[in-house]
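SEVERITY: medium
COMPONENT: batch folding queue
REPORTER: lab tech (J.R.)

DESCRIPTION
The queue accepted two submissions in a row. Attaching both inputs and their returned structure tokens so the on-call engineer can compare them side by side.

ATTACHMENT 1
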Amino acid sequence: MTAVSSEVNAAVAIAARDVVKSLKSVGSLVFSLAFPLIFVGLMGETIAQNMGAGLGYNYLQFMLIGMAVNTLFQVTIAGIMNLVEDRQNDFTQEMYVAPISRYAIIFGKILGSSCTSLFQLAGLILIALVLGISLGGWSFVRLLVLSPLICLSGGALGTLLVGVVHDQKTAQIGTPMVVFPQMFLSGAMIPVNHSSGVLAWLAHIMPMTYVVDLTRAVFYWGEPQYHNVVLYSPALDVAVVIAFFCVFSVLGVWLFVRAETNR
């Protein structure tokens, strides 16, 4: 067996373990239904009933797209951040002393977390069908085609975080501080077209802002409400997403490998 195939097999095994672990977790399955129900069903419906009439587009569909991106993005981040916690259990300790590279570990976690996020996305789709929110037909299919890029973007940010954070307590505090600002300031849930001052600046530096905007550009392409929901040109969104991915992934992997080598 060549070194490359050994690394690939190790990454696939790590990814498969994460997927099986997620499917066996009752809490994870409940969360995949409860999270979209709370945010889309309760919060989204409340905003739609009180503020949605003047927007010029279907707010619940707008929020559904944002929550789909948020689910793929944040679940991938959370899955990779589990590396910090997993350092304390036997499996990961054995994995670190196995004859595989740290790069295979990171790639396996990104792959496994991405697959897990797709299961979470299924819960969001189910809630949308129950609430009667239009999925947009082929528009939603285009969104699904874009999902690997969304997961990789979240995986790059998660890799950077796991490269910086090395203990479980810091991870438990730091992860929500990265996750929740992205959710509320990127435009995933609440429109940020008219944000100004500090809020506008924060929206511009959030990586997920450009992922959400690109996804909406793909979803609403050719629709009359396109210019009401899309902030930037798709070319700019793609350029920024690629830049974030390259910087975060390269820097994050380097920090992670260096930290694990010095343990």
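ATTACHMENT 2
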Amino acid sequence: MFSVSGCFSETYAEARAKFCGAAAQAGGALRSWLNPKARGPNGETLYLDTARFGPADAANMLVLIAGTHGVEGHCGSGAEIAWMRSGGPAKLPPGTGALLIHALNPYGFAWTRRVTEDNVDLNRNFVDHDKGYPANDGYLAIADAVLPTDWDEASKAETDRVFAAYAQKHGAFGLQSAISGGQYTHPDGIFFGGTSPSWSNRTIRAIAREELSRAKRVGIIDFHTGLGPFGHGELICAVSPAARSFARAKAWYGDEMTSPEGGTSTSAVVVGVMTDAFPQELPDAEVTPVALEYGTYPVPEVLNAVRADNWLHHRGDPGSARGRALKADMKERFFPAGDKWREMVWARADQTIGWALKGMTRG
């Protein structure tokens, strides 16, 4: 028996070593992409790695993605490594392969941040940058409170006042949507979608074309953390309920699946999500994406950690004692310590992977 907890890592460097080792042990084909724009906190080089299993011409491809939101890569990495160490590659059905994408956003993973080296939220970056950006008037109304000048009791009280007034008018979920729905006006803010495709955006598109062009059916599981009850893995389908891929996902996952547009998810409706790239790059394949979102702590605590991390990198000192404390809090909010949460992550991941493989092989 393998140790589930031992599949998870405390740092990006540890996670990368474990991932590459597990992939080699399981007979996977490894490829690496160097991020030329960023280094880790200790000056280390940063890589996005992939491991591929199964026949080169597999009609069905399972795709597991870790680290879209960097710090959340601790979770996805652990699930990927657990799948490999538990014999997942050897149990793939005939005609089925798997592509594991590790540290899609290696900068965020290494620095304990959700965002990329450009302060971009990858799950808001996959819009058409040649067209006008979606408006978020709610964010405009609270932007100064999101990123205060100082991080102290006075600024906290002012932020609480602004947020409470907004929630009083628009509801708690309205406040969450204003903050997290995505914005394209404040490059120093949170949930910023960017003004051009990021390095990770361009790289994942190239990987999709190179690794998945022969597949007829592609089932994607993108690992995330931070929303929902502690340890619960919510299956979120972020496509329109009118889309064919939504109906397929519903057939695969049943009532376990939720929809932001349908109002059944803990997630706000967001635009420019990363998994949109796959049907765009693979127009001849049936692409069925879901996000597997694991709950950690109450949403206000999680959002406060994101705001604190954003303030730290724009107006504070990450190397200071306060910086280290804020970093430790950020990590805990997205990657809770202890074996219980990690075991819950793997149990749900194993279940979800099973559903995806069954759905694909049913045709």
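NOTES FROM REPORTER
Residues 34 and 47 are 5 Å apart (CA to CA).
No errors were logged for either attachment.
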